[in-house]
Specification:
This protein is mostly helical. The protein has one domain. The protein contains 4 helices and 2 strands; from the N terminus they run αβααβα. It has helices spanning about 10-20, 30-60, 65-95, 105-130, and strands at about 25, 100. The relative contact order is 0.14.
Length: about 130
Amino acid sequence: MERGSVTRFPTIGQIVWQGSVVQRVEGSMARDHLANERTFLAWIRTGLSLTGLGIGLLKIAKHGISDTACYLIIGLGLFMMGNATRRYLHVMRLLTNRHFEPNVVSILSIVAAIMIVILGLLYLHLIEEL
């Protein structure tokens, strides 16, 4: 790459419709692996928090919180932990080969799962209101 040249990354639409773009990684391999671990642990903490919240709410479900809502929250937490583990192992393999692939599919799937849970909770709330 010439000095002063700009790298053009594909748009999100191009990545979603044409597939991810694997890029060559230049730099410290240890730093990249440690960053991958930190990201993995952050997702695991989030998943554990959601799972714990769902279990806690399940224990006090007598206060108007539906059991189904609690199970939706627990499911979301478990989904996040499973997705985090899959992504961590995938990125570890890529980094070992000095490559990197943007995390578009995982991000879109987590956003979709969160939206489904929120819509499910809203639906349960509306049913209980009637």
